[in-house]
Specification:
Layout lengths: L2 H8 L3 E7 L4 E9 L5 E2 L2 E4 L4 H21 L5 E8 L8 H12 L5 E2 L8 H8 L16 H20 L8 E5 L3 H12 L3 E5 L3 H10 L2 E2 L12 E4 L18 E2 L11 H8 L3 E2 L2 H4 L2 H7 L9 H9 L1 H15 L3 H23 L3
Helix pairs in contact: 1-2, 2-13, 3-4, 5-6, 5-10, 5-12, 6-7, 10-11, 12-13
């Protein structure tokens, strides 16, 4: 499938490639939809095996940002950037500065932020070359705790809907991925009285979770854990034909993007009696937090956290739409986001001058 065919399939407005021979930067920025405003989405640095894999990821991620920003009630469109490379080995000041120049060429159509493989310190370097960056240390800072708080609120909504529980106390949660978000989520879960089993492909990250009080397991064993909630907090596509039969959890609720390898896997979960919490709702806390930087008056943490807490209500609304319309939960989340975008597009057309 060609680049243009993929753009047509996912509904993208623009995909831009950049190569910088000085730093070795190889990056792609995908702008999916700007109906609601400029595209906002983080920059992911990952050692993709092929350029095609990187392109596939950035297209899916940017589309997810459109839906996430719409569902969170933000006046922002969806975009994403990927840098091909190992963040532990290939990242340099020259590379980040080159990436900042790349973002600047889009003149505000795309606003970047931290994501997997990048940090608030990286955003500070990128900021030297472009103003179109959020998630800075002196403003909202690291978005990971905000994302984790949103996941925590989503889990409360899920257990309320499924079991009419007000607390996570006594529940067992399997967390896949103990990076910044996963680790903060584990801390919250343990403080709430839940028990946690966790895994990560990096032993040093997993050790931090064990130090907090989680039990470690091998990466391949996380799916079959006897638990109430499975929390995917690593990369996407992990809900698939191979993993679904292994799941013993009754709820899937985590911060990873694009958890369903294919939309049909959401129906497969439902048929097995597993409640799927759509990822772009669950992980909306991070973008809600950094987006507060560009609101009038600048960043206000109390306001941002109050907005993130609304994920509880938003997710319950998704469950209600799914029930009323006979949809799967992932379809209901899409419906809610698409309805907001559609209304905004109709209003734009209504007031456009000939």
């Amino acid at each position: 499938m060609s680049v243009f065919e993929m753009m047509e399939k996912y509904g993208h407005e623009q995909v831009v490639f950049n190569y910088d021979p000085v730093s070795g930067l190889r990056a792609i920025i995908a702008i999916h939809d700007t109906t609601l405003g400029p595209a906002l989405g983080g920059t992911r640095m990952w050692p993709y095996k092929t350029e095609e894999e990187a392109l596939f990821d950035v297209l899916r991620l940017s589309r997810g940002m459109t839906y996430k920003n719409a569902a969170m009630g933000l006046n922002l469109g969806g975009g994403k950037a990927v840098i091909i490379g190992d963040p532990r080995k290939d990242k340099s000041e020259e590379l980040l500065r080159a990436f900042g120049k790349f973002v600047e060429t889009l003149n505000g159509r795309y606003i970047t932020a931290e994501d997997v493989g990048t940090t608030t310190e990286d955003m500070d370097i990128i900021r030297t070359q472009t103003k179109w960056v959020v998630g800075l240390r002196e403003t909202s800072g690291n978005p990971s705790p905000a994302t984790a708080y949103g996941v925590f609120r989503a889990m409360h909504a899920a257990v309320k809907y499924l079991w009419n529980l007000e607390s996570l106390k006594g529940l067992r949660v399997a967390v896949q991925g103990t990076g910044s978000v996963g680790l903060d989520l584990i801390r919250r879960l343990l403080e709430a009285g839940a028990t946690v089993v966790a895994t990560d492909i990096y032993p040093d990250k997993l050790e931090k979770a064990v130090e907090l009080g989680a039990t470690a397991c091998a990466p391949e064993a996380i799916y079959s854990q006897d638990c109430d909630i499975f929390a995917p907090c690593a990369l996407g596509g992990i809900i698939n034909d191979e993993t679904i039969p292994q799941l013993k959890a009754k709820i899937v609720c985590g911060c990873a993007n694009n958890q369903l390898l294919e939309p049909s896997h959401g129906k497969d979960l439902s048929e097995r009696g597993i409640l799927y919490c759509p990822d772009f709702i669950v992980n909306g806390g991070g973008v809600t937090n950094v987006a507060d930087e560009i609101r009038p008056g600048g960043y206000n943490r109390e306001r941002a956290m109050a907005s993130i807490a609304r994920i509880y209500d938003i997710l319950l609304r998704v469950f209600q739409i799914a029930k009323e319309k006979g949809m799967e939960t992932y379809e209901a989340a899409d419906y809610m986001a698409e309805e907001r975008i559609s209304k905004a597009l109709r209003q734009k057309k209504m007031y456009m001058r000939e």
